[in-house]
Amino acid sequence: MAHDTEVLVLGGGSTGCGIARDLAMRGLEVTLVERGNLTDGTTGRMHGLLHSGGRYAVSDQASATECIEENKILRDIAGHCVEMTGGLFVQRPEDPDDYFQEKLEGCRECKIPARALSGREAREVEPYLAKDVKRAIQVPDGAIDPFRLCVANAIDAERHGARVETHAEVVDLLRDGDDIYGVKVRHDSGPGKRTHKTPGTTEEITADYVVNATGAWAGQIGAMADLDVEVRPSKGVMTIMNVRQVDTVVNRCRPKGDADIVVPHETTAILGTTDEEVEDPDDYPEEGWEVDMMIDTLSELVPILEKARTIRSFWGVRPLYEPPGRGTKDPTDITRDFFLLDHEERDDVAGMSSIVGGKFTTYRAMAEQISDHVCEQLGVTASCATAEESLPGSENLEVLEEGMDDFGLRSPIARRSKQRLGSRSPEVLETDEANPVICQCEGVTRAEVCDAISQSGSDLNAVRIRTRASMGNCQGGFCCQNMASELHPEYDEETTREALDELFQERWKGERHALWGEQLSQAMLNYALHATTMNRDNDPASAAEPVDYGAFDTGVR
Amino acid sequence: MAIEDDVLVIGGGLAGATAALTAVEEGVQVRLVTYKQSTLRHASGLIDILGYTPGGDGPIVDPFEALSALPEGHPYERVGTEAVRDALSFFDEIAGDAYAGGHTASNALVPTHGGTVKPTARYPVSTAAGLATVPKDTLLVGFETLTDFDAPLAASHLEAAGAPFEARGVTVAFPGIVRDDAKINRYAHLLDHEETVQAGAGETSAREALAATVDANLEDESRVGFPAILGDEHSDEVRADLEDALGVDVFEVPMGPPSLPGMRLEDLLYDALSDAGVRVTSGVPVIDYESDGDGAIDHVVVDRHGQEVPYRAEQYVLATGGLVGKGVRSERDRVFEPVFDCHVPHAAERYDWFVEDVFGEQPYARFGLVPDRELRPLDEDDEPEFSNLRAAGGVLGGYDYAAEKSGAGVSLATGYVAGGRAGTEASR
Predict the structure, then answer these.
(1) Is residue B228 classed exposed, middle or buried when 0-12, 13-18 and 19+ CB atoms within 10 A define those classes?
(2) pTM
(3) Among A residues 512-531, those touching chain B with beta carbons less than 8 Å apart
(4) What would the pLDDT profile of B149-191 be if each residue is shown by its tens digit?
């Protein structure tokens, strides 16, 4: 029977994109489908910590070892997505001494470079640490841009022949007896580019093998073929600060607890997180007390956070899983290991495996193991090369840094553009056209926005995650409209207007969790610009009734 | 030694300036203190009275007709319709030839830089030729280095909005702009000062070069619209020269910040303050006050570059703006007015300050002081906070200027009434 593709990967997060890249590089024919944008699920809703492994050095040494190995690999293959900030595990006077010692020894056992610092030494590294911080352990934690990383995987998969289809929701698994042979997807309507299919239509995609890499949604996919995949989605809040109060990752050094990490990220710092089991990964409460707890608890480590400006908060859902029978009550106790559920072995239904659990830092290693499994199923012998081959944007970064001028951009903007684009910088920025800054907060130029549009079409949220435009202090108040303007005339006025409305609303969604102080003033200014100055809230072009222009002042005396 | 005046106005935006100009007409000594740059530079420079009802009906043709139906507590209801008319006439006198629209009670519809239209009562004379109600075919001109105005998109949007004319947009290079990130003022400066620029064959003036560039793109349109960058100090002259060279009407489309029409309005107001003899002290914040123990303010304390200086007056007008101007501030668990700590009603729960639809009925947009009909801010028990304090403009609550398009009108009307009362009281 002819199939549309050899392997069909469900889910466009880090795991799915990593698998698609791995298999495509091995020469397999791959199709990936994602319900929303790439990174729409858990990957786009995390704090972007590149683990050193220190976090797991006491509780789960196998994971810790895996983390430090992958940490090194990602620095090599994805340098343009990584900032090696370093990290500190900070002990307050009330935190247990035993645990500090266990953490230090655990790091050494797992070959994680770790050094104990006195309180004074720790404050030399991070001057804003609380005065009474007792000690700290220094480890090679880092920050990683999950959007950039995920998109780079998808781009490389495409370069190796994969089809990557976003805004394609799986509505059914195709099952014939004991064999799963594909999926039915619905192509979504909305502003995105639809290069393959028309919005609103459905498509059946058949495959030799299906990989369910939908994370917290894996149970919902399984249920379409009457398979029980018991993921236990667990939500966590993250609060974004408008500047970096710290330049290294700051962790609380105690056994476990909510609100115990600050990750510096580009121009911001991200506070995280909570861990609370939810029923439905698409529908869970986002509550003010969670935001308050981030600020109040982390202020014990970094007191200035109490008075600092937050620009938004967001929630993510972990795809936690534990094998049946363990019955762990507290989600913080559930392992962060990943599990490959071969439904043939487990349920006597052939043609599909589900991937559950796991963590972002080890996405590549997970993808490698899963791809090995898929190859075994399909009788393919090709081996994995993802640990050696750099991702698009990260090839020859040192050479690039030396040999490149600044494309006529002011140097801070050029520096940031180069950091974002890595080795793709010349291809994107060398232009004869005027290249003004579109997003002032993040220093994103027209060339970058147009490059992102060429990748993702009229979906401005996809442009946003590729460029960081609209993700700074003003949360898009000043630049959403300018981003939308770049869609025209390739996309018509109505599409452009809808894309703008969608982005503006999306920016508001997270910002409303930060509505006090400076950010409430910013929100009012944004509202005033869009409603008062532009009258976008009462736009006659979107109104049901036409305006009677003749009834108004015509300026004639 | 305290600085002594009869009336002290705190805040230098439209409401504060209007209050000071009204008060000084009573023959008293008036001082205006301002801290930061006023929010006029964020504003379009249009004078909106009321474009939509609080229920969202509109666009309203005759704003005055709609005023009487406003709910109790709305700033317009507090001062009454006549005061709004008087305040607007007062503005017309101050603005003179710089603003148009005073010949009719009807709102005009002005194209916005996003390409929609909005109702407004008065518009800068530079915008007058561009009214969307006028059925004249229009060429919009944008500049490739000016990202806030995409002329072809705006033209297409105007058509989608049903504007009764053909609109076409072109994007050109602005003669003399060599940096991709030149500031707005740079464009205006080039035209204001007739700077010499390189154009095609040789050197020419910026105005001539711009006219030539546009002329090459002009078909049979009878008016040309530019983003609002056509000069600053000499904008009338710049526009007149372009009209002469092109042989068609030329207008400006109001823009977001930094907004030249807003800054021109600010200049106009400060010239008027100077002419009227109002003393202006700028760049200093009011940080505290002392009451006289009898329900009145004795003096306020101004931080003059690290030195705390008392400023005393008979009467005070608070015109420090809303959330944007920081006359209303907030913390995680409260909303407050920072100078006198006047009562600001708000829900105790922060998550009740907003609704999910970004353009929905936003409670935060209505944060501000509750005044009596004399515009004295009221405390929780509906008693005046101070006998000699009035409030005007954005610091007042109970209305959503963004949704209603009523910001400038409320500032004018309440500034006019608060300033007038303060002046009268102080002259007794």
Answers:
(1) buried
(2) 0.93
(3) 512, 515-517, 520-521, 523-525, 527-531
(4) 999 999 999 999 999 999 999 999 999 998 888 999 999 999 9
